[in-house]
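Hello forum,

I keep getting stuck at the same step: I have a sequence, I want structure tokens, and every attempt I make locally crashes halfway through. Rather than fight my setup again tonight, could one of you with a working pipeline run this one for me? It's a single chain of 387 residues.
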Amino acid sequence: MRRLREAVADVSCAGPQHIASAARAFLASFKPLSSERNVRERLRDNNFDALRVIFASIVVFFHMGILAGRPALAWMQYLSATFAVQAFFVVSGFLVTVSFERSASLSAYCGKRFRRIAPAYVAVVVAAALLLAPLSTLSSARYFLSAGFWEYLGNNLLMMNFRAPTLPGVFQGNPLPAVNGSLWTIKVEVGFYVVVPFMVWLVRRYGARRALGLVFFGSVAWHLIFGELGSHDPLGLYARLAKQLPGELSFFAGGAWAYYRALEGRSPPFLLAVAGAIAYATASGLVFEAVAPFAVVALVSWAAIAGPRLPPFGRYGDFSYGIYLYHFPIVQALIALGLFAWSSWIAVLVTILAVACCSVISWFFLESPALAGRAQHALRPRRSLAS
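Reply #2:
Ran it on my machine without issues. Output:
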């Protein structure tokens, strides 16, 4: 973000010429990267870590607003958790494709993916089941011996969260009794891990444009078809199918496409990102469902590798996964304890501190040791596989 810092420094000098120079420097930070070398440099110094923290934080604030139902926090409900989750999928499409391409073997890739996602996921499921026992309306003996307790553990550890979203007697007085409504996306993420080797094989055989285009448009079609069927289905089965892996794969494929384009030294266009943001904000209904993958891919890929540089959160650790996993049961527990009813803003502050502590502890004592020296996200360019 050197050009941006220079712009700020120039403004402090206050003269008209300095202000004009500062404005030019600031606007220059939004121009397309001028060369293949610049794009490849941004692959090494990208915004992925900062963006993931931002997207995770959007989900946290949205859930505080929607779960607590307090008038003072009503504005949080206007944050788009849907956008944040879709943006996460785009980022995963980019980074997981990189992970596979840089793995020595299929088993090495699978090991890296397992170590990244499993430890914290298992921890949040087991910790919630154990630590929320005092909030249950059941006695400790009845709680731990109940079928519901073991059903929650078994189904959630197997990522079948929809079969057992609640714990016996826990959060029964909350507007929503679910223990962790964020976990549904993790099975979609794992499904994408499984798809990536096949997707990269297609890219190597047929080229990125044809292979990823087929995946992308096939996913959009799946989502639109089942979404439309869901609008006439009182049981909601088709609507749930629309949200599963095939219907979300367009975002992952778009992220992978951005990676292969970057390998060719192509900068994500700023104007396309602006058009995507406008389309996402203004479209509705079936049109929104159709344009959302294009819009989110355009916006996120530009922000990650062509937009102004964001603070280097990855320097301190990769906390976004922990933020995303741990926040929901923390918010639910504070609602059950009455903290949001007593003081909405104190509850928000406590939530932020608790989520931050859990994510930091999780990273340093659980996730990072499990990864054991895995390189983070300084993306070294490789021989292009796109065509």
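Residues 344-371 form the longest helix (28 residues). If your local run keeps crashing, start a new thread with the error log.
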